[in-house]
Amino acid sequence: MRTSVPLKVLAQLGWRNLWRHRRRNVMLLSAIVLAVAFVLLANSLLRGWQAQMLDTVVANLTGHVKVLAPGYRDDPSIQRGFEIPAEYQPVVPGMEGWTSRVRVPGVILSERDTRGVMLVGVDPAQELAISFLADVTVEGEYLQSPADRRVLIGAALAEQLETRVGRRIVLMTQGSDGRNREAGYRIAGIYRASSAGLEKAFAFTGREVLQDLLDSRAVTELSVRLQENGQRTVARESLQRQFGEQEASTWDELEPMAASMYRFADTAMLIWFSVMMTALAFGLVNTLVTAVMERTRELGMLRAIGMQPGVLLLQVVMESLMIVSLGVVLGIGLGMLAVQALSGGIDLSQWTAGIESYYMGSVLVPVLLPYDIVRVLALSLLFGLVASAFPAWRAVRVEPLDAMRR
Q: At what angle do helices 370-387 and 22-57 cross, to 10 degrees?
């Protein structure tokens, strides 16, 4: 006579079996909780790095999508510029802000020193909506308009030039006719950015002022910031239709190294999760196999009274999923508490010089996405199900007569 057991009864038996050896199972449960919590925290830190990397690249005058003239990336000069109508407004899905700039290499001279910089002519109001200038602190004054004939430089550059707010400096660059141009400007303000590299790289002035110096009405780039990174492909196609002769590119095409690191973060999450869960799977297999071996007589008796092999297999699998499910839920809760505790960010300022190359700022803020929680939950249960396969197979292979002799 074959016996079929209701799932409720199997669940009750499985739960009681787990606590027949409390010490061993509590240790396994604790390992699962800590592993899941650590994976979730590690994921949130990698997500924070991703978000910071994307924001850094987009804010460092790249934008999500940028329009450049063909050849400008190889020869960044005003000769590779293009003109846009004065009343032009880009039509781009999901656009948060946009601006056009004149960006050319140049030299800045103070009374004390000379440095090479990238001269950037901007519309100050538009720039505040899309670039890192929105997050800087300024000693002195920010630029007021595209016609502002003053200069905004970084603190690190000001230190190198041994100059300060209100002093005059000279800008030198190559005009549209190929001849050298130079003009004197007064320093309106000195900005402090998230990295010394930015402070040394750019000197800003009014866009119209730099165009006058270059003797050209052209701009060298049009940059668009989007509400969502996922909209960048559609935005690029839209801009490419509007600027047929120019080249519209997304940030990951303009910054391939940053794009590679951005994608690597996703891969690193899966690798780290797989390593942790594989280690836990061995512990789970060992625990369940031991439990099966200790219950050989019990399992044999169940088989002898007619319990179907499939029901026995289901009971072992349910025991595995019970302890994994409980551990995963508690681990996710602990991980969320850890992320919340670090919501103010982790101070990395003492390593600023080394982490700038990884597009990181001085503070790393973890980011916990619902998608990551669901993924950790689903993959953990999947690992638990796979890990229970061998113990379940051992349980099914128990022969009633052999078991009764033990």
A: 140
Residue-wise pLDDT tens digits, 116-171: 999 999 999 999 989 999 989 999 999 999 999 999 999 999 999 999 999 999 99
Q: Which amino acid is at 345?
A: G
Query: What is the residue type of 212?
Result: D
Please name the amino acid found at residue 236.
R
Tell me if 336 sits within 8 A of 318, measured CB to CB: no
Specify whether the CB–CB gap between 255 and 62 falls below 8 A.
yes
What would the pLDDT profile of 164-203 be if each residue is shown by its tens digit? 999 999 999 999 998 999 999 999 999 998 788 889 999 9
At what angle are helices 370-387 and 389-396 packed, to 10 degrees? 30
Name the least confident of 44-58, 254-268, 275-289. Answer: 275-289
Owner of token pair 């001085």: 362
- Confirm if 288 and 324 have CB atoms less than 8 A apart: no
Angle at the Cα of 271 from the Cα atoms of 267 and 276, rounded to 5 degrees: 150
Closest CA to 246 of 130, 119, 100: 100
Phi and psi for 187 in degrees, rounded to 5? Answer: -80, 115
CA atoms of 291 and 316, how far apart (whole Å) = 10
What local confidence, expressed as pLDDT, does residue 68 receive? 96
3-state secondary structure at position 347: strand
Of the candidates 79, 116, 105, 81, the one whose C-alpha atom is nearest the C-alpha of residue 173 is 105
Amino acid, res. 178: G
- Is residue 18 very low, low, confident or very high in pLDDT (cuts 50, 70, 90)? low
Question: Quick one: DSSP state of residue 145?
Answer: S
Alpha helix stretches (DSSP H) within 95-248: 124-130, 155-161, 196-201, 207-214, 232-242
Is the pTM higher than 0.90? The answer reads no
